Amino acid sequence: MRAVILKDFGGVENFEITVLPIPTPTSNQVLVKLEAISVNPIDVKTRAGKGIAGLVANEMPAILGWDIAGIITEIGSDVNDFQLGDEVFGMLAFPKLGKAYAEYIVADINDLAIKPKNISFTEAAAAPLAALTAWQAMTTFTKIKNGDRVLIHAASGGVGHYAIQIAKYFGAYVIGTSSSANKDFVLSIGADEHVDYQSQPFENVIADIDFVLDTMGGEYIDRSLKIMKKGSTIVSLPSGLNETVVEKADVLGINGFTIKAKPSKEDMKILASLMSEGYLRSHISKTFYIDQIADAHLQIESGKTVGKIVLTF
């Protein structure tokens, strides 16, 4: 099978496409022939030696990637939940190596869900890590209610565009920040209001927020806290600039948390249901082939990706 090896941390020139034996599943795993995978910012950060590079450094050279969609071609002896030919999707092993940059992978059954029949492989592969992050951030620490005012930063990005749809599913009034170039997109996927972060400080035009999903960290935490109600909740995603959110929020009577997505069969089933029923859709800004992995990483690295980037075989 073809696979993309990262020889060492650094630039995209450290990727190498090679041929490896097809792996064999253990008794509680399945073998999946991949139809599509997606690339996330954590892939890019880890490749560069940041992100979770410290967790995988002793396994170099390594196969990166976590988001997958494909067809089960072999089943371990103890597997009862899946059958040969099942179309599945999921986030593999995160934050351990998922080894998704390959034509075949072995997957733990608890990392997978059945792909909805009305969703393509590319749409399915785009979702897991980003959609799980949004779902878990918005359900782990609080319950968003009908009419709550929800602020989502970087609303046109991978996590952000799923978060808008999830917040709307809960009945919230959603405000999204992005550049003016992405205003129409943010509004088209359900946001009630858009703020161009480049033309005006968002804290000057927004108030009385019940929930903030912070994807930026740093000063965005301080600025967001200024416009939040007492007893409200802010969840900050890993950025290296979010360590103080808990303490800063607590001083103001606000609940502050950080979160990293974790594999969850139950949450994947919920996402599958939301996608099947049309409440949650993946926006794919560009599709690459697996041998264009460097181009895909550079696109994410540009910081200008709307929605998700997907690779096919």
List keywords for this structure.
6-stranded parallel sheet, single chain, 7-stranded mixed sheet, 313 residues, 15 strands, alpha/beta
Could you tell me the radius of gyration in angstroms? 19 Å
Residues in helix, % = 25-40%
Q: What's the tally of helices? A: 10
**Major sheet description:** 7 strands, mixed
What's the total count of β strands? 15
> DSSP strand (E) fraction?
25-35%
Distance between the termini: 11 Å
Structural class: alpha/beta
Low-confidence stretches: none
Write down the overall geometry: globular
> What is the mean predicted local confidence, pLDDT?
95
Helix and strand element order: EEEHHEEEEHHEHEHEEHEHEHEHE
Task: Give structural notes.
The protein has 313 residues and is of the alpha/beta class. It is built from 10 helices and 15 strands. The strands form 3 sheets. Strands 3, 4, 5, 6, 7, 14 and 15 form a 7-stranded mixed beta sheet that branches. It has a 6-stranded parallel beta sheet with strand order 10-9-8-11-12-13, with helices on both faces. Strands 1-2 form a two-stranded antiparallel ribbon. Helix 4 crosses helix 5. The protein is globular and about 55 Å long. The N and C termini lie close together (11 Å).
Quick recap:
The longest helix is centred in the middle third of the chain and has 12 residues, at 128-139.
